[in-house]
């Protein structure tokens, strides 16, 4: 049930908007229909009166004529025909008297009009017009003429009665009757003409008035239509302007958006009107968002958007490129003046007093500066250079301006990493990664379960790219949590598919690598639990591998993360163990199941006694603490024999088997070929 005072449903809102737009048209159409109906009724009734007046006048003249013939011939048939002719105007007289009575007698009026020779279908209109418009000047005058003309009716009726009573008509009587009839005739003619003229004038006036009224309504309808159409066009132009503005501006800060900014940069490169291009990225924006919420971050962006244009002046274009990144296109001054403007911009951002809920925030920005000279030939080149310069400003300590130089080797490396970031993001969006698995072979009876490590590759234009080429860029630019999520999600789904296809108890352990940022991400643990629940994979089958350096970097967080997942059945391996020997004393604080001995020691253990000693020490340490050991990078039979002699539990490397595609169907293939 809709609460009182709550918003209206969308269909009701649409209906109300439709009514608001359409009601004037509906009102005019209804008015036009009513006026047309009224006009038709009025014209029909007037036509009936004109027709009735014609019969009324004819009846009077016929009565005079037949009375005259009776005087001439004393033929009683003419007297009868006189009475028949006179009954027509007398019937109209009775009808008028019935309508003027109080109250009006409609039945008698109808009978009177019927005797007056009127058509039965016209009688309701005669009554309606008399009752409702007898006050009207023309109608009132016509009725008065009608009333005056009726005097002659009674005179003729009296004369006819006198003639009928005469037993023997004398010549002098006929002369007297003829004189009296001529007098009546002289009186009737002007009265009937007056009645006819009054009725005609009234009819013409009413018809003209109704025509004018109909034309006025039609003109009003046209005017309203034109007004509404003009209003619609104005509203449409307003909407088009608003949409155009929204397409080129940022909704939050009201600054030009990235698309608009890029068009201006491209135009400036074409005509050579710009001096420099700046990218400014806020350094501690995430802190503001995490501490004060997105409302605080939005308020900070709006404050900058309001303050910075005044600082930059009319010769600069400021735009919000997305997130906490701003772009500036400088049109005036030299390159040196542009650099001064960039530093002023950095200082202005740093001096912005930003307070949210009594909490003071320090704001700073890393700014990349690009000279727009002949070396910058395209929009893509300019934007890429500004992006690289902005990243370099952050890498060198933030809150600084870095000037792009195409000959800088460090910038070239950064450009390569940025390129990887774009490729990785595109691969995450398109699911362009693939999973491989490499067996981890047991070397002792204590390690009987099957074991494999799940690895990730990037499928790019038909090539498979190993993690060594893209993981550093993913780590540098914060993409590892996304990549770890992709690997976990697809690995668990594949394992679920293997279990469903195999129909046998699954004893294999699947090792999945996790990065340090993923372990430190508070949302990652709920994500893992949700994926276990969604896929139905038993946690006992999964061993998560984290590197020794990432675990030691945030020991408390790593220990809590490991404990939480081991609590639901997962295993853990400490990868690349031995790379930092000073961290041995941390081992007892990390509840892991496996130690993976760093491959650098394993590969050289046959040639270097120190490497062999390290492998022996790590293996002994693991066994003392109840942890199984895994040797990585086993590439020869001699190394494998040495590991067996030392007592290492598992071996992994190309000598044991190369990585193979990790898909659900492999389980069936392996079972059939066993």
Automatic annotation (TrEMBL):
An MF annotation (GO) of this entry: cyclic-guanylate-specific phosphodiesterase activity
EAL domain span: 417-673
Cross-referenced PROSITE patterns: EAL, GGDEF
Source taxon at top rank: Bacteria
GGDEF domain mapped to chain residues: 273-406
InterPro entries given in the database record: Cyclic-di-GMP_PDE-like (IPR050706), EAL_dom (IPR001633), EAL_sf (IPR035919), GGDEF_dom (IPR000160), Nucleotide_cyclase (IPR029787), Rev_trsase/Diguanyl_cyclase (IPR043128)
Keywords, alphabetical: Membrane, Transmembrane, Transmembrane helix
Gene3D superfamilies membership: 3.30.70.270, EAL domain
Parts of the chain that traverse the membrane: 21-43, 205-227
UniProt-listed NCBIfam families: GGDEF
Protein name: Diguanylate cyclase
Species: Devosia insulae DS-56
Organism taxonomic ancestry: Bacteria, Pseudomonadati, Pseudomonadota, Alphaproteobacteria, Hyphomicrobiales
């Amino acid at each position: 049930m809709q609460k009182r005072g709550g918003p209206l449903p969308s269909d009701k809102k649409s209906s109300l908007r439709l009514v608001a737009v359409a009601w004037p048209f509906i009102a005019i159409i209804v008015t036009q229909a009513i006026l047309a109906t009224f006009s038709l009724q009025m014209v029909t009734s007037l036509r009936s009166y004109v027709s009735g007046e014609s019969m009324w006048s004819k009846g009077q003249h016929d009565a005079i004529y037949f009375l005259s013939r009776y005087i001439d011939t004393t033929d009683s048939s003419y007297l009868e025909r006189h009475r028949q002719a006179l009954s027509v105007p007398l019937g109209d007289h009775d009808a008028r008297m019935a309508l003027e009575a109080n109250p009006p007698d409609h039945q008698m009026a109808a009978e009177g009009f019927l005797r007056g020779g009127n058509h039965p279908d016209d009688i309701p209109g005669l009554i309606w017009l008399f009752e409702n418009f007898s006050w009207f000047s023309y109608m009132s005058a016509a009725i008065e003429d009608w009333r005056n003309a009726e005097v002659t009716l009674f005179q003729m009726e009296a004369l006819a009665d006198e003639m009928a009573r005469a037993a023997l008509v004398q010549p002098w009587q006929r002369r007297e009757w003829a004189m009296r009839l001529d007098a009546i005739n002289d009186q009737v003619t002007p009265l009937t003409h007056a009645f006819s003229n009054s009725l005609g004038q009234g009819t013409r006036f009413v018809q003209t008035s109704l025509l004018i009224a109909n034309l006025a309504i039609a003109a009003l309808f046209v005017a309203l239509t034109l007004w509404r159409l003009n209003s619609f066009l104005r509203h449409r132009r307003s909407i088009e302007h608003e949409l155009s503005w929204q397409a080129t501006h940022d909704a939050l800060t009201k600054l030009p958006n990235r698309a608009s900014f890029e068009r201006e940069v491209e135009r400036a490169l074409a005509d050579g009107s710009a001096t420099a291009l700046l990218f400014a990225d806020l350094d501690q924006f995430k802190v503001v968002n995490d501490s004060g919420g997105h409302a605080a971050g939005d308020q900070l962006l709006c404050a900058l958007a309001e303050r910075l244009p005044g600082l930059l002046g009319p010769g600069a274009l400021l735009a919000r490129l997305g997130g906490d990144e701003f772009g500036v296109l400088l049109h005036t001054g030299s390159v040196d003046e542009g650099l001064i403007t960039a530093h002023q911009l950095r200082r202005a951002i740093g001096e912005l007093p930003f307070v949210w809920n009594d909490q003071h925030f320090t704001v700073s920005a890393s700014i990349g500066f690009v000279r727009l000279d002949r070396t910058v030939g395209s929009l893509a080149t300019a934007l890429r250079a500004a992006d690289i310069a902005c990243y370099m400003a952050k890498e060198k300590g933030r809150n600084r301006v870095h000037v792009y130089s195409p000959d800088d080797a460090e910038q070239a490396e950064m450009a390569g990493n940025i390129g990887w970031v774009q490729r990785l993001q595109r691969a995450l969006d398109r699911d362009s990664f693939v999973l491989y698995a490499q067996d981890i072979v047991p070397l002792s009876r204590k390690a009987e379960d099957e074991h494999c490590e799940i690895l990730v590759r990037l499928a790019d234009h038909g090539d498979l790219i190993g993690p060594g080429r893209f993981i550093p860029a993913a780590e540098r630019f914060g993409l590892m949590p996304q990549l770890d999520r992709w690997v976990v999600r697809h690995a668990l789904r594949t394992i679920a598919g293997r279990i469903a296809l195999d129909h046998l108890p699954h004893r294999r352990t699947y090792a999945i690598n996790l990065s340090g940022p993923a372990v430190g991400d508070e949302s990652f643990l709920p994500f893992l639990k949700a994926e276990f629940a969604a896929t139905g994979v038993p946690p006992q089958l999964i061993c998560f591998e984290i590197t020794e350096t990432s675990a030691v970097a945030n020991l408390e967080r790593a220990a809590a993360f490991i404990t939480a997942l081991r609590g639901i059945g997962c295993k853990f391996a400490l990868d690349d163990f031995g790379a930092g020997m000073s961290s041995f004393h941390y081992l007892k604080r990390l509840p892991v199941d496996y130690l993976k001995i760093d491959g650098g020691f394993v590969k050289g253990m046959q040639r270097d006694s120190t490497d062999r000693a390290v492998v022996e020490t790590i293996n002994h340490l693991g066994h003392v603490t109840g942890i199984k050991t895994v040797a990585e990078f086993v590439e020869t039979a001699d190394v494998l024999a040495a590991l067996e002699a030392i007592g290492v539990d598992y071996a992994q490397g190309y000598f044991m088997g190369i990585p193979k595609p990790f898909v659900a169907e492999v389980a069936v293939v392996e079972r059939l070929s066993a």
